[in-house]
Prior knowledge:
Layout: H1 2-21, H2 27-45, E1 56-57, H3 71-78, E2 87-88, H4 92-99, H5 101-112, H6 124-130, H7 137-146, H8 153-188, E3 194-200, H9 203-207, H10 211-222, E4 226-232, H11 236-270
Parallel strand pairs: 3-4
Antiparallel strand pairs: 1-2
Amino acid sequence: MVTAVACRLVSQRKQIDEILASFELSKENLIEVKNKMRGELEYGLKKETHATATVKMLPTYVCGTPDGTGKDLCKAHKNNLPSFNYLYYCFVNRYEKMTSGMYLGEIVRGQISESLRTRGIFETKFLSHIESDRLALLQVRRILQQLGLDSTCDDSIIVKEVCGAVSKRAAHLCGAGLAAIVEKKRENRNLEHLKITVGVDGTLYKLHPHFSGILRETVKEMAPQCDVTFMLSEDGSGKGAALIMLWQKDCIMLEKIKNKDKYLSTFVQVH
């Protein structure tokens, strides 16, 4: 009986290791992702290949960083185009699903138990909680029990390992993609070494105990000639939208004043 139990445990461990191995990315894999991103950026920038590129590069009329005058923003508004460069991912649909906090919980759910059939039941916040270094296995087990899983301590260890593999892969993929972008910026500016600050938003970066560290290390390894500083941006998308609306309003007001001055000047000349 002991032999049978031992064989079952060995078989189970082999199964788990195979699942975990599928989430492992070698350095060669990450270089391939970086090169793929770089290639798609180039396609998106070229007029000849833009239409079929999977990463769409939209033109921007913002020529520099804000200096208080709002001139570049008014120019962007006048042309009815976005004020910033956006990457629109399509190869990316899959890339996004493997890196976004919105989907990581679903990936874990699909690996740990067939009984978790309800979509969205394993939220990404659970992934962050389970991976916390301060969380004991008993507490991990409690989270699983809240989800309706009658788990053992061994199950808790497995779930923790799966959560770690999924989030680690996500951080590596994000880092490889970002490395391609900063390297492109460095080359565009003809710099031997680039110093740049990247704004980051999202609960995965803010709350996950290891994601931000793995992301930073990956970018450093994949883009060694770029010194990237990450700055947490609280509600970046909401504030960005509010700022653009404010600038748009200012641009409209400036245009009205300009037209009014032009009208008054013409009126004075006529009379």
